[in-house]
């Protein structure tokens, strides 16, 4: 299954590690440090020029496996779409009728 993150970016749900809300996550020093390191290392991609409301942490397999091991790369996408909406699109949250 695929999830539209905004703009013209669509990702595979099996590659998603986490979908997090920017505002609540940036209250943590460790989260800020993580995102700063990702920026410095070039792992961050902005979906659009709009103010990000969430970010998606992914692990992608790139290139051909080396000695039977896949080459994995962490990618972070800043999305203008709320984390809750993205989680619903990815079916991480299901609707229940009570």
From TrEMBL:
Q: Which InterPro entries match?
A: RemA-like
Entry superkingdom? Bacteria
Q: Which Pfam families match?
A: RemA-like
Protein name from the UniProt record: DUF370 domain-containing protein
Native organism is Alkaliphilus flagellatus
